[in-house]
């Protein structure tokens, strides 16, 4: 989300570093948050639930767009490592990943541009209810995502994956919270994937949406590159651990983590929408 941009990237950077010298305890705290975010995000998404609030809490006087850009820099590296880890084990058609990634990239960029014009006020209030429906459905359907039974094949699967990626990619650029979890849910519910395969696809598509947003933030000067690099290293460590844990324990384990993360997202988004 790009609301709160300053007039220039240089101004944003100066605002961030005002009164700060070197790498202090704040950066160490953010590194820890990035590790935990990478760990959770590698399994079911939702890492932004940890990393973004940490950035805003530790650096409350900073330009929001700069913190969001820094978040994307850290996230994309963790997501890429998790995707690579999954793809070594889970077989997914390259054409599906390519079409989905392209659609996600383009639509995420458009969503990020649109939010500079139209604030996502109504979506913010609707999100807790959407996530609530996802949580209830997943909880009630005990066998959802436990076994891998793809419903589509060939070009139909490719085009449908691109359509899902376009919609969620646009959402990620326009608003963002829970993007990875929405990807996972859609590929489990509508495509018949198990949670492990859905998580693998989610990571690849999330790389595309993160790259799109990072491009927009980067060219506008809204990235703290040194801090983002530190957090990226920590994200990679968490992503390696999280993805390996998911692969080792399988879809049943990932399903439980998914429900836990969605419940946390409901609490966080409800607070943001109605009590902040």
Walk me through what this model shows:
The chain has helices at 9-17, 25-44, 48-58, 64-87, 94-114, 121-140, 154-174, 179-189, 195-219, 225-274. The chain is mostly helical and 276 residues long. It has one domain. The longest helix has 50 residues, at 225-274. It is globular and about 50 Å long. Belongs to the 4-toluene sulfonate uptake permease (TSUP) (TC 2.A.102) family.
SSE layout:
Blueprint: H1 9-17, H2 25-44, H3 48-58, H4 64-87, H5 94-114, H6 121-140, H7 154-174, H8 179-189, H9 195-219, H10 225-274
Membrane topology: Multi-pass membrane protein
Main location: membrane
InterPro entries: TM_pro_TauE-like (IPR002781), TSUP (IPR052017)
How many angstroms does the end-to-end distance come to? 17 Å
Oligomer: single chain
Strand content: under 5%
Helical amount: over 70%
Give the count of helical stretches.
10
* Beta strands, count: 0
Low-confidence parts: 1-12, 14-22
Order of helices and strands: HHHHHHHHHH
Radius of gyration: 18 Å
Helix and strand composition category = mainly alpha
Report mean pLDDT, rounded to a whole number: 87
Shape by Cα distribution: globular
Q: How many structural domains can be distinguished in the coordinates? A: 1
Described by strand count, sense and barrel closure, the largest sheet is: none
């Amino acid at each position: 989300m790009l609301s709160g941009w300053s007039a220039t990237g240089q101004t944003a950077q100066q605002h961030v570093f005002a009164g700060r010298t070197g790498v202090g305890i704040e950066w160490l705290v953010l590194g820890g948050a990035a590790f935990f975010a990478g760990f959770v995000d590698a399994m079911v998404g939702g890492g932004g639930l940890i990393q973004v609030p940490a950035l805003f809490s530790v650096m409350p006087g900073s330009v929001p767009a700069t913190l969001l850009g820094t978040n994307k820099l850290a996230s994309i590296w963790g997501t890429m490592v998790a995707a690579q880890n999954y793809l070594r084990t889970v077989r997914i058609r390259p054409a599906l990943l390519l079409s989905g990634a392209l659609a996600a990239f383009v639509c995420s960029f458009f969503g990020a541009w649109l939010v500079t014009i139209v604030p996502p006020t109504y979506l913010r209030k609707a999100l807790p209810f959407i996530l609530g429906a996802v949580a209830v459905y997943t909880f009630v359907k005990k066998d959802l995502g436990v076994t891998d039974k793809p419903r589509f094949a060939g070009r139909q699967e490719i085009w449908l994956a691109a359509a899902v990626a376009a919609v969620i990619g646009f959402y990620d650029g326009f608003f963002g919270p829970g993007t990875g979890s929405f990807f996972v849910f859609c590929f489990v519910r509508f495509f018949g994937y198990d949670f492990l395969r859905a998580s693998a696809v989610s990571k690849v598509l999330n790389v595309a949406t993160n790259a799109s947003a990072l491009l927009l933030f980067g060219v506008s000067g809204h990235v703290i590159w040194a801090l983002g690099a530190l957090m990226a290293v920590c994200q990679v460590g968490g992503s390696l651990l999280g993805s390996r844990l998911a692969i080792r324990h399988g879809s049943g384990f990932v399903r439980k983590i998914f429900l836990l993360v969605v419940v946390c997202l409901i609490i966080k988004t409800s607070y943001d929408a109605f009590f902040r």
